[in-house]
Amino acid sequence: MPLSDRRALFGEPASRAPRCSCEExxxxxxxxxxxxxxxxxxxxxxxxxxxxxxxxxxxLKDSVDFLVGTAHTSAExxxxxxxxxxxKIVFIAPIPKTDQLTAPDKLHPTSSAWPPTTTIEGGRAxxxxxxxxxxxxxxxxxxLRLRSGRDQGFRRAPQKLKPDxxxxxxxxxxxxxxxxxxxxxxxxxxxxxxxxxxxWAGTSNVLRSR
Length: 210
Hints:
CATH superfamily of the largest domain: Response regulator
CATH architecture of the largest domain: 3-Layer(aba) Sandwich
Radius of gyration: 20 Å
Shape: elongated
CATH class of the largest domain: Alpha Beta
Largest sheet: 3 strands, parallel
Structural class: alpha/beta
Mean pLDDT: 76
């Protein structure tokens, strides 16, 4: 899990929870007589390479039984899932929402993805916004989502619900973007009637006033 910069808003509690659970289990004698230990290495960088290296090290050197993660980018979960598959280790993904984790050619028996995928989440968001829009002609939608994932569930869903829905723009700001002026200017020019913010790690606070 990431334990630095904005991503630590997810990484810190996600790393703390397993440690607390291990303490509770160990206080009761463990599971089948075995004590539990949670290892939370600090991840640096934002590419799948580093998490895969950490996952391999945990498996080969620390002999872990489970892997839990990741939270940096959508590419990292599927990459670590491959490492888990090759080593026959259980991989639990409590945060990544990419469709690639549950795609038929990527899913395997030791991989478990808990959150709704971005297609499910995006489709539901589009459905909800469609209900809010009603039949009042409010069908010009703008979508803002971080660059870490670009699954297209939100784009596909509206047209199924309302054929006259128009996605006027999709923007992909980077995490920690210091200046959203270009985002504001571009979105104002599109004149959307609704905006869907699929952002995280405090980024949405920057845009809330708009």
